[in-house]
Amino acid sequence: MSTANAPSEHPPTLPGMAIYDTGNPGTHSANAHELPNYLSNGRRGTASRPSGRSEPKEFDTKVEKKGRAIVTMTLVSEAAYSRTRPTFFEGTPVKGRVRLSLDQPDTIHSVVISVQGRFMTGINPEEQLTFIEISRTLWTQSDGAPKNARASDISYSQGGGKFTGKLKGEYIWPFSIDLPKEVMLPSGIGSNKVEAFPPPQTFNERKTLASINYEIYVRVARGRWKADHRMMSQFGYIPLTRPPPFPPLRLLAYQEGRALIDPTIDLEGWHSSRPARVHGTLFKDRVATILCTLFIAKPLSYTRGSLIPLCLRLEGDDPQALDILSSPKSILVRLRRHVRYQFPGKTGASEDTIEDSSPALWWPRVAGTEEISPTSEHMRYVNGELHLKVDLKPSSAMSHFRVEYSVVLFPFEAPEFEHSTEQAQPPGEAIIEQAVQIVTSFAPGPRPVKSAPGYDLSMQVHTAKPISAKNALV
Description:
Region (Disordered): 1-63
Number of strands: 27
Largest sheet: 7 strands, antiparallel
Protein name: Arrestin-like N-terminal domain-containing protein
Domain Arrestin-like N-terminal: 83-235
Number of domains: 2
Structural class: mainly beta
CATH class of the largest domain: Mainly Beta
Radius of gyration: 28 Å
Number of helices: 2
Order of helices and strands: EEEEEEEEEEEEHEEEEEHEEEEEEEEEE
CATH architecture of the largest domain: Sandwich
Pfam family, one: Arrestin_N
CATH topology of the largest domain: Immunoglobulin-like
């Protein structure tokens, strides 16, 4: 009989690690806000792992009889990101071994291992889409006797080397299976167009019906009238994605430990939203109109566990309204995640779940340094930063399943200012929304760091090491 533990979704994060995943441990038996400072006074590819290879960790799944393991499948992955279940990142083979332990002679026809990647919205076959399916025969009778088979148990069929005896004792078959970097799937339900998609990260969340699962199966085929030994274990998969290089002035600021330069000066370093007009009533007695522009640091691709630098510009003819809406307590910006998926076998049936992050941190700009542009009584700048959780699922796009992110400016939250009825936003609606990507690895070079007025930026400069097969940042 087989048993296995259910996976968990909260892995450890080591210093310098952006890639992680979780799962379930060990032996399975088949039976404080820091204020950052930007306007202060003042793509897909090979990714890298932490320097120094972590120790391997083994995870066992067993078929047992009377408390004794008959078949044991062992998966071997790096301990750094495999706290509770084996986890493999893109470009790393799924490795392990199968052990067969027989006290009594038994007829074994073959030992086969297979790996599946599946998108699921239910337990029925029509609610599932298999996008990876790889099978390997570790041993079959046609291969002849296993290396450590006992001579007394070996016999061969006439005219060939096929093994027809029984096995007894211990037998071990190692395996190593490479997962594809791309899978070919229809571009959508009912579509005849086939496209290449990168396999997404393992995805299992209670609030979302859809899931992405990676599983490995072992089947030990036995003699006539005997039940085969079967087992299954789940493992985690992490794609390796990284952002493009920083624009020159942003790169220089990180290298020198300085604040980022004003978006009105460093035009290449910031993405500027289309200005949005906000109409409302101040103190219930006068109308005010404010023009809002949200700046987001380029490139619009960010490593989970890091941060998104922000800047908000407010323009208007009412200085008091500008002061109220530029207060850090009035500004609400969040990272929004959309999980969009279609139900296999149901044309037109789809779901879209939305989840918003904790709000960004904001702080007033202090004028008087060369890094910022002049201000006036009709304009306000506010610095901001969104801190990204290390356990964010990366952006992904597959025919039936997508994880997408955007930075959203919501209506201002100021008791002195009431948004006009004509412009009142339904709950959760955005004033400004900009699509961004979340990736799993840092680009080479300095990394974004948190900073604040009086915070020593020079002590926070971290540089990613050059990429290599054995020195990759996760």
